[in-house]
Amino acid sequence: MDEATKPAESHLSAGTTIFRQGDEGDEMFVISRGRVRLSLGGPDGQREIAVLQAGDFFGELSLLSGARRTATAMALDDCVLLAIRRDVFAMMMQDDLEVVFRMMDALGARLSQTDRQVHELVQTLARIRAVADLLRRCLRPDGYQTVSVDVPELARAWKVSVDVVQATLTELAREGAGTLRDGRWVIEGGEQVDRLAGLLAGH
């Protein structure tokens, strides 16, 4: 990894707001030192959803989907953070697609602690999981392969209804990331695979 694509290191004082709920963002952060508090705002004020420590990461939903920040992040201690931009993440993803699923598991655990403001987040999370699964089916060490899989199989793999799968695939087809054909989802050609990878990387 060259200097241009290395994670940027930031030193923050305790009490610094890293980003606020609703801000735009296209990077995630890994905590090298210190603790970070994540909170959600609502009618009753801020509600803490997690306190993260060295080795944890946050901000991944904005990086993956381009969504606005869904929580406020504040440094509880003097912190050292590594900022990972989309171009860096895209390189990481090429080496280890499983990193996406680990990120989704962590995000899902945080969402399970909340009881409001989560419907759109859950929908976005489901879409990212779907795109990551389809991409994993395509990619091989020597390139990519054509994928043809029936909708019920995807419903079982994603643990959602056939109707939800149909809706997701219809949206992906409109974005040029595959074709829904005779009840099967087909991905063929490098252009469709590249488009699918671009959607996952948040382009």
Task: Characterize the structure shown.
With 203 residues, the protein is an alpha+beta fold. It folds into 2 domains: 83 residues, Jelly Rolls, CATH 2.60.120; 82 residues, Arc Repressor Mutant, subunit A. It is 40% helix and 29% strand. It has 7 helices and 13 strands. It has a 4-stranded antiparallel sheet with strand order 1-8-3-6. Strands 2-7-4-5 form a 4-stranded antiparallel sheet, with no helix packed on it. A hairpin with a 2-residue loop joins strand 4 and strand 5. Helix 3 runs antiparallel to helix 4 and helix 4 packs antiparallel against helix 7. It is elongated. The model has no long low-confidence stretch (mean pLDDT 80).
Quick overview:
40% of the residues lie in helices and 29% in strands. It is of the alpha+beta class and 203 residues long.
State the low-pLDDT regions, or none: none
Helix count, DSSP H or I runs of 4 or more residues: 7
Q: Tell me the span between the first and last alpha carbons.
A: 21 Å
> Which CATH architecture of the largest domain would you pick?
Sandwich
The CATH superfamily of the largest domain bears the name: Jelly Rolls
What labels describe this entry?
Jelly Rolls, Arc Repressor Mutant, subunit A, 2 domains, 7 helices, four-stranded antiparallel sheet, elongated, 203 residues, 40% helix, alpha+beta
Helix-strand layout with pairing:
Blueprint: E1 8-12, E2 17-19, E3 27-33, E4 36-42, E5 45-52, E6 57-58, H1 60-65, E7 72-75, E8 79-85, H2 86-95, H3 98-111, H4 119-138, E9 139-140, E10 143-144, E11 147-150, H5 151-158, H6 162-174, E12 179-181, E13 184-187, H7 190-200
Antiparallel strand pairs: 1-8, 2-7, 3-6, 3-8, 4-5, 4-7, 9-10, 11-13, 12-13
